[in-house]
Amino acid sequence: MNDLLQFCRNWFAHKMWRRWALRIACVWVVGWLGLQLAVSLIPLPEGIGKLPAISPQVADREGVPLRLLLTADEYFLQPVTLEECAPVFIQATLAAEDKRFWSHDGVDWMGVARAVKDMIANGRVVSGASTITQQLIKNVEPRSRTVRTKILESLQAKKLERQWTKTQILTAYLNRIDYGNLCRGAGTGAWYYFDKPLSDLSPAEAAFLAGLPNAPARFNPRKNFDRAKRRQLTILARMHRN
């Protein structure tokens, strides 16, 4: 009799477990299919494939550039290709903004989990989780910061990752992001702050420049050099760890 009761208990328990496992699997599959459908249907921001206006140049009689002029939108931009960037600058940028850039699909779920954990522990947002792809989307189509817009940016980032290569995404990011003092793009920032091309930056210079886009006004070295310097040291430490 006891054996029969034990058999019934085990059979019931296994049956309940199988039901819950099936339900969880169904929810996961439906959620995954819904995500794929949403990514396929959502449009990318208009202008994502267009480079912002480039600064006119003043050159001498031999064609050597002397200075850049402001664009109509009042910024300086001298675009670069990824091949023109020193490898150490790419390393510094990824250490500063998106260390899993080469492996994620537009959304860094490990970064999201870390940001949520930090927010719960501190009672406020203390770290972001936006990938370089998401930041590019945000730069092309600025929106108010809400949960809805964050979801839209995540879906658009995943779609962009399907249509563009990582090299295309990183190049577009480096030519659009704000480096402060009216400098748009990493190439412009390198000339403004160090009077040299990106290809010639030292590790310290690369870390300094890569730290500015996180908060261009807060880390503006013309006004807050100590903050910019601390940011540089943080990035150098990350580069060393990675």
From TrEMBL:
Glycosyl transferase family domain mapped to chain residues:
78-240
**Which GO MF terms does the UniProt record name?**
peptidoglycan glycosyltransferase activity
Q: Which Pfam families match?
A: Transgly
InterPro entries, per the entry = Glyco_trans_51, Glycosyltr_51/Transpeptidase, Lysozyme-like_dom_sf, PBP_transglycosylase
Membrane spanning stretches: 20-42
The keyword Signal is annotated on this UniProt entry: no
Keywords for the protein's UniProt record, in alphabetical order: Membrane, Transferase, Transmembrane, Transmembrane helix
What's any one GO cellular component for it?
outer membrane-bounded periplasmic space
Question: What are the recorded Gene Ontology BP terms?
Answer: peptidoglycan biosynthetic process
- PANTHER family the record matches: BINDING PROTEIN TRANSPEPTIDASE, PUTATIVE-RELATED, PENICILLIN-BINDING PROTEIN 1C
Protein name per UniProt:
Glycosyl transferase family 51 domain-containing protein
Supply the source organism for this entry: marine metagenome
The top of its lineage is: unclassified sequences, metagenomes, ecological metagenomes
